[in-house]
Design brief:
Layout lengths: L22 H9 L1 H11 L3 E2 H7 L5 H13 L3 E6 L5 E6 L1 H19 L1 H18 L1
Antiparallel strand pairs: 1-3, 2-3
């Protein structure tokens, strides 16, 4: 097989378990600490940057800007600058972003619903480890 005949990564079927699969970067963006929260917040509707920052406690301006840019590049977030004074930029989900947001929101909801179970498991685990030491 000549070098030019070698299939490109984009031609191969996606397999997230393969080390060089491009779907891993998509997964990383969607399930990142801030990616999940941005997607979930935008499920509620179109928001301005400052509204998103207030909605997502603890995110810095820099991290929010980076996350929005990454999700926009991946085709999940739409950034619309309104020609008004002062400048007005709004963020919303694309259809692709809405699909991803619904998936991660299900996981976020599950984590909220099972928080006590996880905390009990952690306490039991820590107690068992402490007895071994």
């Amino acid at each position: 097989m000549a070098v030019s005949d070698k299939p490109k990564l984009s031609d191969l079927p996606a397999d997230v378990f393969t080390a060089d699969c491009p779907s891993r970067s998509v997964l990383e963006h969607v399930v990142s600490r801030w990616g999940v929260l941005v997607l979930a917040a935008l499920l509620e509707g179109t928001l301005r940057f400052s509204e998103l920052r207030r909605r997502i406690g603890g995110v810095s301006e820099k991290m929010l800007a980076q996350t929005l840019q990454t999700l926009e590049r991946d085709g999940m977030v739409l950034r619309e600058a309104r020609p008004v004074i002062p400048p007005h930029v709004e963020y919303s989900l694309t259809p692709l972003g809405e699909q991803a947001a619904r998936q991660v929101w299900a996981l976020a909801t599950w984590s909220q619903e099972h928080l006590q179970d996880v905390q009990k498991a952690r306490t039991a685990y820590d107690a068992a480890r402490a007895r071994k030491d």
